[in-house]
Amino acid sequence: MQLPSPADSGDASPLPPPLDGNLLIDLSPLPTMVLSPSCCITRVSNRFLDSWAVTREDCVGQQLLSFIDRQLHPAGSAAILYISATIDAAVAARAERTTKQITTINATSWRARVLPIFNGAELLATVLEWQEGSAPLIEEEIVRPGLSTDEAFRILVQAVKDYAIFLLDTSGHIASWNRGAELLKGYRREEIIGKHFSVFYGTDDLAVRKPELELEICLREGRVEDEGWRYKKDGTRFWANVIITAVYKDGVHVGFGKVTRDLTERKTSESRLIAAYEESEKLKSDFLANMSHEIRTPMHGMLSACSLLLDTALTDRQKDIVYIMDESGQVLLQVINDILDYSKLASGSFSITSDIVGITSVITSVVRSVQTTMRSPVHFELFLAPELPKSVQGDPLRYRQIVHNLVNNAGKFTERGHIRIQASVQSEDEDSYVVLTEVTDTGIGIPDAGSANLFTPFTQFDATTTKRFKGTGLGLSIAKSLAELMGGRIGYRPNPERQGSIFWFTARFKKIKSLEQINAWKNNYSRGEDVHQLALGSPSPELVAELGRAASTKSLLLAEDNIINQKVMIGMLRSIGFKNVALAANGAEAVKMVRGKPAAYDMVLMDINMPILDGHKASVQIREAGIRVPIVAMTAYALKGDKERCLEHGMDDYIPKPVQKQYLIKVLCQWLLTEKDYR
């Protein structure tokens, strides 16, 4: 190559652009490795990958000692200790050093030229240039029985301070001790030599024979790596990363090499991150609970007022307007419920209950409720397999929620044609059924691009500003999580007959093996009422009439601070037939009124979030006074645990806001009517 002369180049020629350092490493003709100051492999040359027969993923990002240990032949060779010592020596001297020879698993011998790179006092990186050799390991490089451990580890004792590196004999007694071990663990050499290495373990580890088990695993697999608490001489503990390798000479096991690092700072950082995460989850949960309360409280007033308004004499136009208000409020309430359900599912705090499920009753009930909202050109087809069990054990509310979501979606996207619901037993064993439920529609269908993300939270296949169909994009994601919690799966496929979709899901239900299970459930939950009807909060007309007759003789106390909610609740109670309804504006007033006249009230309807004294504390004070009047919580808090928290504070039942009139009647029946009234 002919270089240009000064005359040719001229004084104004621009300098060539600087070369990329990473590119220089990649293209190096030598097997080259770059380490971070903490001895983590950050880059290797292409030649290194070829020569060592590894991939970039095998080494980049790994700790050097762990990587080298996996490449050594035989496994557990003490050569790894020499490499560590040589690197420490090169860094300490800020000069080039060369390691002793090692042999890798592909029977190739290597030595590394260690080049520490400093910027002033700061170590930037360490470069290892590997040179291939053919000479076998010399005998002095192997720790052998009878060889002075001081001689074998003299370089380690002098140079390595950040690692505790020492040898154990075949039974686990300490045979050598370096400077790093003395600094980390606090023992002087003469204090620790000959003691068993279990002295560094806590009582819990000793109780399960962890030190002995580690040596057994090491003998079986060649090495063992562990992280956990280890103890110093002064009794303080530190979080340790420990690597133990079995050391052999001529095929004979002669001991163990042990390398310990102090990772307490990393453990502390991890603990802080976990604590911060848990705190953020608590803040999120508190925020959702507060938002639920703040939104549900005015929703309760609006929807209850609509319910009361519909009980009055209205013109057709007025009824249409009230129905629009009520429907819009129900849609908003469903959005709120979807967000809360998703939050509970995402945090893992969602649970499945175990009750009697009538699969046929649930499906027909959903069809009836959705059918009233459908366009006239759309009709329903219901196919229930004859082998479907009449009753099974599972979660009826969550099964209904999935069916309702799929059927409601089918109705939303279908303008003409049919919606077909099919249910059958997919499989069964001695204890359970797997029920397959399919919803087929002739609607607009799902584009291929959108089908992949159907069950992803907040995803809608039409996310444009001109989309016709609104929603949060959470319904199918919630349905998927619920199906999995019920031991099943959910999926989609195009309708093969015509345009449209088929959504299906499976759920596992336990078999009911005795009539006593059904009778016990009926006695606990329905008291003679139709099981599925009562579970959906729709008491029979006869029971409603019975409550209306009994209401005139009952006296209620309503504890509610919100003026609008006071008005609508009193209006709702009076529409049922209750004339004697006392009012308390806060928990303190409620306690005073109940204590003043312990036998005056047949029930207390207690709001939770009130000034001066909240519903929880008010209930506790009433119970402490020995008054056993039924207390029913009315709250806009709707997260998992809210109902249980109410019961823990002495309340007897729970009504979520917005209060549905039918559900209120159900609870009133349960606590105000006698067993005879129910029958």
TrEMBL record:
Residues 224-275 form the PAC domain. Keywords: Phosphoprotein, Two-component regulatory system. It comes from the Eukaryota. CDD domains: HATPase_EvgS-ArcB-TorS-like (cd16922), HisKA (cd00082), PAS (cd00130), REC_hyHK_CKI1_RcsC-like (cd17546). Residues 149-222 form the PAS domain. Residues 555-672 form the Response regulatory domain. PROSITE patterns: HIS_KIN (PS50109), PAC (PS50113), PAS (PS50112), RESPONSE_REGULATORY (PS50110). Coiled coil: none annotated. Residues 290-511 form the Histidine kinase domain. GO terms for molecular function: phosphorelay sensor kinase activity. SUPFAM superfamilies: ATPase domain of HSP90 chaperone/DNA topoisomerase II/histidine kinase (SSF55874), CheY-like (SSF52172), Homodimeric domain of signal transducing histidine kinase (SSF47384), PYP-like sensor domain (PAS domain) (SSF55785). The keyword Disulfide bond does not apply. The modification 4-aspartylphosphate is found at residue 607. Pfam families: HATPase_c, HisKA, PAS_9, Response_reg. PANTHER family: HYBRID SIGNAL TRANSDUCTION HISTIDINE KINASE J. NCBIfam families: sensory_box. This is Two-component system protein A. It comes from Schizothecium vesticola.
